[in-house]
Amino acid sequence: MASQDIPEEFLDGCARILADASATGRGLTRDELDSRRALGERAADAGYGLRALVGAHLARARAFAAAPRAYGAPGGVAPPVSAEAVLAAVEQAVDAFAEGYERAQRLAIRQEEAARREFIDDLLHGRSDFGLLGERAERFGLRLSVAHAVAVARGERVYEDGDDAPREVERALIARFGDRSPLIATKDGRLVCVTTADQGDVLDFFAKQAHAATDGGRVAIGRPQPGAGGVVQSYEEALSTLDLAERLDLREPVLRAADLLVYPVLTRDRQAMADLVLNTLGPLREARGGAEPLIETLAVYFDAGCVAAQAARRLSLSVRALTYRLERIHRLTGTNPADPMHRYTLQTAVIGARLLSWPAREF
After folding, report:
1. Distance CA 137, CA 139 (A)
2. Distance CA 363, CA 343 (A)
3. Which domain holds residue 59?
């Protein structure tokens, strides 16, 4: 917007102030400064740009300097023009106007941040009426009538909205996708990305950027779910996936809930899983050093595809030592890790032990 397009109301009293200042050499009074600040706030609220507003003030100052009689002092007497006094008055007037403008901008930003934070809290916890939530969502570029998916990134530290990591990720997404950019926020110290279900490439890019910005943090992606309630479901699924990855010590930096559905199924009947763990692995508590070293041996052996040499390297053992441990497990439990008939039972029990934090937590 050009300076000539600025309404006269935001220049109200400017020429009079210049006329008085040039005649007397005085600075602006407190009331005059307050009036400039108030006009600056009103101009900011009206949506005018500061650059154009400052230009309008300078244009008015040039007009006054070119024709001072047109802006005569009270009583119609044209004041003697002092260039230094006029410049000093312009500087004070523009500074006060900009101060009011920036104050209004800061207040608007704080109000916007508060509204955004309240919306995100309601969205991710489903605490608001879904109809009203859908209306509010449009303000932040979301249409909750379609399916959405949520990705959550967790690093070694807690992140807030103003931190470098979320800002860096958001800038990268805006630069890459423009109008397709998702909603990026922080929640409980984690980075959160909400986007429509058809934008899998956006979630993949977020995962890559978030992993780097959090110094190698882990990212979980929930399954797409329809409606406002679907955002909550996808978010909770992503959180559960992060928790699952920690308990199972999964190494992958990016995990998809859809790829890990077997684990919630295994733990759906907690008592049945606890019985399987105790009946299958309980005898390992009789081993020297307890059950934990042997459970870790089994977990690594299964993760290595039951390849003894590879498992031994991961455990920093000789193949002979690993074989001895597997034989020890066979003797104690009566199930042979090398036997395909027994392997599924043992592997399921090991997964259950890790999910239930056994034997560190007895049940």
Report:
1. 5
2. 24
3. 3-109
Helices (H) and strands (E) in the chain, counts: 14, 5
Q: Indicate the average pLDDT of the chain.
A: 86
Q: What pTM was computed for the model?
A: 0.65
**Residues 217 and 211: beta-carbon distance below 8 Å:** yes
Whether residues 79 and 149 share a domain: the answer is no
Mean local confidence (pLDDT), 139-160: 87
Q: How far apart are the first and last CA of the chain?
A: 70
Q: Is residue 339 part of a domain?
A: yes
**Cα gap 170→192, rounded to integer Å:** 11
For residues 327 and 313, the answer to whether their CB atoms sit within 8 Å is: no
Residue 271 sits in the same domain as residue 252:
no
Mean pLDDT of 264-279: 86
Q: Which has the closest alpha carbon to 35: 119, 100, 104, 90?
A: 100
- What are the Cα distances from residue 232, in Å, to 64, 131, 227? 61, 15, 9
